[in-house]
C-alpha cells in the first residue's frame, strides 16, 4: 500500500472546538520506519523526540484482520449500522463507543494477539530493551464512535508503578485520517520537568487524584508552549512513547468506527505494575479500584502546583 501523502502546510485540523493549521501549531509526525533495525539510533530519537512513529510496524494484513474481528464483535452487540458491510465499520444509530478492555474473549483473541504479541513485535522490544520482555495482560482495545476521543494525559499517572523503563505502543487497526480521531502528542512534553515532577509524579489510584491533565488542546499550545503532532495513520502503523509523553486523541468526526489498541512493554525482570496483570481468578485490578471515594480535581491540583 502507498503511504499517505505528506500533510500540506496550512492544512486545517479540527480538534473538537479548536482549529489548528499544519506548519504553525501542529506538525506531522516524523516516520522512523527506515531506522527499524538501527536500535542505537532509535534510542537516540526516543530520548530526543520522545516518540517513535513507525509506518508498517505490523503487517497490514494482520492489522486488518484484527479490525475485522473487532467489527464482528461490535456487530454482535448491535453497534454497526443496519444493512451495511461489517468490514466497513459504519457506526450504528446509537453511536456507541466500545472499549473491550476486560472482554478478554475479544481483546485477547488470536486476531488481536497476532498483532500486538506477534514474534515480530516481541523481537523488536527484546532488541530495543536489551532482554526478555513482557507486556501487560490488559489491552486497551478502543473502538471510537462519532465524537469519541481521549483527553491529554501522561501514562505515568495511570500505569506508572514499578519500572519507569516502560513503553506504550499505540497501534492503528483501521485507517485513521485527520477526520477519524488520530492520536495527538505534545512535542517536548517528555522533557517538561515541571509537569513531570508535579502532575507526572501522581498515581491516580493511590493519591486519589484526577488523571486527565487537560481537556483543552488550545491551552497545551498557548499556555504550555507545545507544538502538537499527529499523522494520517494506516492499519499497522504505530507510535511508541514512554510514560511522560503528553498525548490525547481528537474526536472521531467520521461515520465509521476508529479502532486502535494500546499495549505496554517492559523488561521481564524489572518491577511490574501489578494492577494490569492477571490474578489467580483470571482478572486484573486495573485503575479506579477505590470504590466510593472522591478524587481531587485537577483544577485544584494545578493551582497547588502553580500551573494555572
State the gist of this model.
The chain has helices spanning 39-49, 60-76, 104-107, 110-116, 119-129, 156-159, 193-197, 204-208, 217-222, 298-304, and strands at residues 12-15, 18-21, 26-28, 51-54, 98-99, 133-135, 140-144, 150-153, 166-172, 183-187, 227-230, 238-241, 247-249, 258-267. The protein has 308 residues and is α+β, with helices and mostly antiparallel strands.
Q: What's the overall average pLDDT, rounded?
A: 97
Q: Helices and strands: which structural class?
A: alpha+beta
Number of domains: 1
**In percent, how helical is the residue content?**
25-40%
Shape: globular
Give the N-terminus to C-terminus distance in angstroms. Answer: 46 Å
Q: In the CATH hierarchy, what is the class?
A: Mainly Beta
CATH superfamily: q2cbj1_9rhob like domain
Low-confidence stretches: none
Q: SSE order, as H and E?
A: EEEHEHEHHHEEEHEEHHHEEEEH
Under CATH, the topology can be stated as Jelly Rolls
The number of strands is 14
Largest sheet, in brief, is: 7 strands, antiparallel
| Tally of helical runs | 10
Radius of gyration: 19 Å
If classified by CATH, what would the architecture be? Answer: Sandwich
Q: Assess the beta-strand content as a share of residues.
A: 15-25%
Amino acid at each position: 500500500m502507498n503511504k499517505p501523502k505528506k500533510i500540506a502546510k496550512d492544512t486545517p485540523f479540527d480538534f473538537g472546538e479548536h482549529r489548528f493549521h499544519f506548519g504553525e501549531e501542529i506538525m506531522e509526525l516524523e516516520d522512523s520506519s527506515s531506522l527499524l533495525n538501527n536500535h542505537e539510533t532509535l534510542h537516540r530519537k526516543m530520548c530526543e523526540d520522545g516518540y517513535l512513529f513507525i509506518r508498517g510496524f505490523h503487517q497490514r494484513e494482520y492489522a486488518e484482520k484484527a479490525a475485522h474481528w473487532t467489527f464482528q464483535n461490535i456487530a454482535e452487540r448491535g453497534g454497526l449500522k443496519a444493512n451495511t458491510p461489517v468490514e466497513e465499520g459504519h457506526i450504528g444509530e446509537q453511536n456507541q463507543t466500545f472499549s473491550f478492555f476486560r472482554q478478554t474473549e475479544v481483546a485477547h483473541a488470536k486476531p488481536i494477539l497476532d498483532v500486538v504479541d506477534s514474534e515480530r513485535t516481541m523481537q523488536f522490544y527484546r532488541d530495543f530493551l536489551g532482554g526478555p520482555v513482557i507486556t501487560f495482560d490488559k489491552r486497551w482495545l478502543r473502538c471510537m464512535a462519532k465524537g469519541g476521543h481521549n483527553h491529554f494525559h501522561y501514562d505515568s499517572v495511570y500505569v506508572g508503578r514499578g519500572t519507569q523503563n516502560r513503553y506504550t505502543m499505540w497501534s492503528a487497526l483501521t485507517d485513521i485520517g485527520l477526520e477519524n480521531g488520530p492520536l495527538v502528542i505534545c512535542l517536548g512534553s517528555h522533557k517538561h520537568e515541571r509537569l513531570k515532577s508535579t502532575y507526572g509524579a501522581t498515581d491516580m489510584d493511590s493519591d486519589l487524584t484526577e488523571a486527565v491533565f487537560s481537556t483543552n488542546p488550545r491551552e497545551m499550545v498557548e499556555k504550555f508552549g507545545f507544538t502538537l503532532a499527529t499523522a494520517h495513520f494506516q492499519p499497522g502503523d504505530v507510535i511508541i512513547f514512554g510514560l511522560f509523553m503528553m498525548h490525547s486523541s481528537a474526536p472521531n468526526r467520521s461515520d465509521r468506527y476508529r479502532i486502535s489498541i494500546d499495549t505496554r512493554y517492559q523488561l521481564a525482570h524489572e518491577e511490574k505494575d501489578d494492577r494490569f496483570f492477571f490474578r489467580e481468578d483470571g482478572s486484573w485490578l486495573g485503575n479506579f479500584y477505590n470504590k466510593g471515594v472522591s478524587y481531587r480535581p485537577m483544577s485544584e491540583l494545578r493551582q497547588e502546583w502553580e500551573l494555572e
